[in-house]
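hey can u run this one w/ flavin-adenine dinucleotide bound, need the structure tokens asap thx
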Amino acid sequence: MDNTQATTSSAPSPVGLAALEARLRQDLEWLALPGKSWTPTLERDGQPVIDVAIIGGGQAGMAASVALSHLGIANVIYDQSPKDFEGPWATTARMETLRSPKTLTGPALGFPALTFRAWFEAQFGLAAWDALDKIPRLQWMDYLRWFRRVMQLDIRNEHRVLAVQPRADGIVALKLQSPAGESTVLARRVVVATGRDGLGGAY
Ligand SMILES: Cc1cc2nc3c(=O)[nH]c(=O)nc-3n(C[C@H](O)[C@H](O)[C@H](O)COP(=O)(O)OP(=O)(O)OC[C@H]3O[C@@H](n4cnc5c(N)ncnc54)[C@H](O)[C@@H]3O)c2cc1C
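ok here u go:
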């Protein structure tokens, strides 16, 4: 029998996102992640104090959220954008692709099944990956939407942080604007992941 012909006649079909997600769940399960919560609950002024409030639900804020959850530290992300339109990719961006090479692993935090490549190959296969030059920005946004979904991140969209106020008792108060109006949340720590908006906004 001619084995060469049998093995090279057709490329394997993409495994699909459901299979990738099953693998990712298994990987996390084997590593006992996310970590078990261990921080004591804290209240001030009759209000719960969040362990970490993350301002910005772009790729950096999401990576910070996953990293904290894996350490067993509860966190909430606040982002001013509507759901699935965080960061510049599907709004202010004009260039059609990312600038970085496709092989940079982005916010995957060392998990192979969480990389853009895994997400891409699961849907389009290895030949398509080999043929891809730079990652189209809207496809990157789709990947980030998937990332958020599979990692089950707590992102409160349409929540704009208006002020960050450190208090004398060591707690930080965040003043928020959302469709429900203005409110204040308290946090032990704050991560600022506001991207370019933090430098004054897209221009
Ligand atoms: C076309 C294009 C190609 C690019 N290519 C690359 C590349 O190849 N490699 C690379 O590293 N970078 C590239 N960049 C830069 C890219 O913008 C950043 O790498 C990436 O967006 C940084 O992620 P981030 O999470 O830090 O910030 P962002 O993605 O900007 O996310 C910040 C989030 O914070 C939210 N936010 C800001 N202020 C507040 C507030 N007060 N309250 C609540 N939410 C707030 C914003 O709504 C936003 O969703 C490219 C950019 C563009 C436009």
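The first strand starts at residue 43 and ends at 44. anyway lmk if its weird
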